[in-house]
Amino acid sequence: MKKTAVFPGSFDPLTLGHTDIIDRGLPLFDEIIIAIGTNSSKEYMFSLEERRKFIEKTYAHEPKVIVDTYQGLTIDYCKKVGSQFILRGLRNPADFEFEKAIAQTNRKMSDIETVFLLTSADTSYISSSIVRDILGNNGDVSMFVPKDVKP
After folding, report:
1. Where would you find the membrane-spanning parts of this chain (predicted)?
2. Does 105 count as an annotated binding residue?
3. For residues 145 and 14, is the Cβ–Cβ distance under 8 A?
4. Which of 2, 21, 24, 142 satisfies CB 3.0 to 4.6 Å to 89 for a cystine?
5. Which of 2, 7, 1, 17 is nearest to 74 (CA)?
6. Looking at the annotation, which residues are catalytic?
7. Sequential pLDDT tens for the chain (151 residues)
């Protein structure tokens, strides 16, 4: 049976923290679907198409990565695409507490397992919100995002 993981997020924008988790997840799964969640009530810095292109360009060389978009519950999306796993990264204890509650809820509602990977020490401080703040103040984010993310 093919092991498929969904790595959900808004990826606004894709950061080196995200790629750290994706790259380290690749040996664990036959395929990783990077699923860009959309929420009509949320304001994004980058359009859905820009975010998708950032990811597609970054992983153009990797056949095990699929990029898709979805709305609604992540577990419903997982069921739709036949994924048995949700891949999540943990940066700190606060992430763990938040993600644990979601994972336990998802497990109660389905048979989909959440797999957590700890971020590498050199990327654990990076978040999309910090990158957006730097961008909003005309700062250089090149050391925090893949080279294909060109704001």
Report:
1. none
2. no
3. yes
4. 21
5. 7
6. 18, 42, 91, 128
7. 899 999 999 999 999 999 999 999 999 999 999 999 998 788 999 999 999 999 999 999 999 999 999 999 999 999 999 999 999 999 988 889 999 999 999 999 999 999 999 999 999 999 999 999 999 999 999 999 999 998 7
Residue 126 assigned as binding residue: yes
Could you tell me how many helices (H) and strands (E) the chain has, helices first?
A: 5, 5
Q: Is 74 annotated as a binding residue?
A: yes
Ordered structural domains, the chain, with CATH: 4-136 (3.40.50.620)
Type of residue numbered 111:
D
Instruction: Quote the strand ranges of 1-151, DSSP E.
Output: 4-9, 31-37, 65-70, 85-90, 113-118
- AA identity, residue 150: K
User: What interhelical angle do 74-81 and 93-109 show, nearest 10?
Assistant: 60
Strand residues in 19-151 grouped as ranges (E): 31-37, 65-70, 85-90, 113-118
Model pTM score: 0.94
- 61-100 pLDDT, tens per residue? 999 999 999 999 999 999 999 999 999 999 988 889 999 9
**Does the annotation flag 91 for ligand binding?**
yes
Q: Is 69 annotated as a binding residue?
A: no
